[in-house]
Amino acid sequence: MQSSSRQKQKDIVLQTTDVSVYYGGQCALKEVNLEIPRHEVVGFIGPSGCGKSTLLRSFNRLNDLVKGAKVTGLITLNGKNINDDAVNPVELRQQIGMVFQRPNPFPKSIYDNIAVGLKVNGYRGDKDELVEYSLRQVGLWDEVKDRLKKNALTLSGGQQQRLCIARAIALQPEIILMDEPCSSLDPISTARIEELIRELQKNYTLIVVTHNLKQASLICDRVAFFDLEGEETKVGHLIEYDRTEIIFQRPSQIATQEYVSGRRMRPQL
Ligand SMILES: Nc1ncnc2c1ncn2[C@@H]1O[C@H](COP(=O)(O)OP(=O)(O)OP(=O)(O)O)[C@@H](O)[C@H]1O
Questions:
Q1: Which of 16, 67, 74, 204 has its CA 20 to 30 A from that of 187?
Q2: Quick check: CB of 82 below 6 Å from ligand 1?
């Protein structure tokens, strides 16, 4: 793996050391070493099945909920081991929120989609204020302020996805994980979410899995390229991690260059 030495001087919020993930004893992702700087947007790219979502899910311990999944190595949030017995996974998931491929609002009112999480987490402040703050953060407040009691499922797909981001924000996370957040959205909603990701990085660190290379080059400060290696059993590896312009313009690995230039499928001569 290649990485810029400038990274070392950064304020690192999340770090992985030799992280491997297994499903039923089968290795899906091997020995990943990554440092995620605070308030940056980091993109995960690579072919299908190389372990991007698997790694993302290990950051907020969602793999704990997958039967037969095992994570080895060390993952630290602000220097603390997230897999330590003393860490409550529910609290960890407040600090490291997640937005999925398809918008998944609860079939409740727009207001309750945000307020319910606050109640569960014992929030004692002014709920109305935090609901408004969260909706403003995602640019949804003006669009929904007059219909907060309407069912969230009446919103468009793009609005629903912004509501899901607002729901994560309301829990005041440090990191927001996004697993292909625009893949089910139209181009206008996609552009809005891309713009939003850039705005959100002032307050949060974002890690975004995407198959859209143009999107990665537009919204990410850094990009990690993963690939499948191995003869019979293909295992995901981190190939290269660096600043976005380096990954797209002068990567150090041939595999990265072939993937980002779209020459990947060319038959071997
Ligand atoms: N719950 C699971 N049980 C067993 N194997 C799994 C599970 N989830 C993922 N895998 C396997 O782990 C490997 C990595 O999958 P993962 O979904 O993380 O890749 P990905 O890079 O995110 O793929 P895509 O880009 O298609 O979403 C694949 O071989 C997949 O089949």
A1: 204
A2: no
